[in-house]
Amino acid sequence: MSKDDFRQCYGPLALVTGASSGIGMAFARALAQRDLDLVLVARREDRLAALARELMAQHGVDVRVLAVDLAAPGATERMVEALAGGDIGLLVSNAGFGLKGAHEDNDPGAMAALLQVNCLAPLQLSHRLIPHLRERGRGGIIITSSVEGFMGVPYSAAYAASKAFTNSLAESLWGELSPAGIDVLALCPGSTDTEAHDKQGIDRTRLQDMMSPQEVAALALDNLAQGPVYIAGEQNRAMFDALLAMPRREALLLMADNIRAALL
Asked: Out of 10, 100, 155, 159, which one is annotated catalytic?
């Protein structure tokens, strides 16, 4: 799809959550390169402001920032109210985080926040923005999920369960919205070179075949019309094809061994 065609379909305005780092920041840069104006959402306003200045200077697009903690009750509702009147053609619901380690060791408050950010935010944002997309008769929704959404993952139980939710949500919305000209994609990256690993206590030097966030975001945008689910990277597709072909008990024990080895 040409830059003009992309903007005609998914512009003029894209909303990107979790835009202050990693894949979300890569989405923001890639969309600015495609001449879309942006609303960038994350908790860290200083990072968002710096990114906005960069994108406006380099690409001449309009960028608005909203410092919002999506784990807070009512956060998505307040954000949608702040966006009233904007012609949003693309929702990139990218914000999310994970917890690694034994399930019983995870903090209950952190697990509740994980569900709010990973599950409720895309659920509520899509619910509020779909009527506008239907009125337009075109547009798109990208929900950043994970390859961990395809099966249970030992030592990542809450995160894997949340990504099973987002995969199912995206598939369901694709079935509802594709006849209306609205594309829906669950982006399922594998290991990606972002600070998320550090926050979860994973030693990045022990991880193989990590993709860059820039590559992941670009692949998602290039394959947005090929929903409902897209696994980024041939190596990730091959790995999960192999895991899902194994007896489930064997696959789960293999995953457990691999994650234990990567934890600091």
From this structure: 159
What's the pLDDT tens digit per position in 21-45? 999 999 999 999 999 999 999 999 9
pTM reported for the whole predicted model: 0.93
Residue 100 falls in the annotated catalytic set: no
pLDDT at 193: 66
Pick out the chain residues at pLDDT < 70.
192-208, 264
Q: Determine which one of 155, 163, 199, 230 is catalytic.
A: 163
Residue 197 confidence (pLDDT): 52
Residue 159: active-site member: yes
> Contact 210/204 with Cβ under 8 angstroms?
yes
pLDDT of residue 78: 87
* Per-residue model confidence (pLDDT) at position 210: 81
Domains of the chain by start residue, with CATH: 3-262 (3.40.50.720)
Encoded tokens for 154:
């030992």
Residue 206: the pLDDT is 59
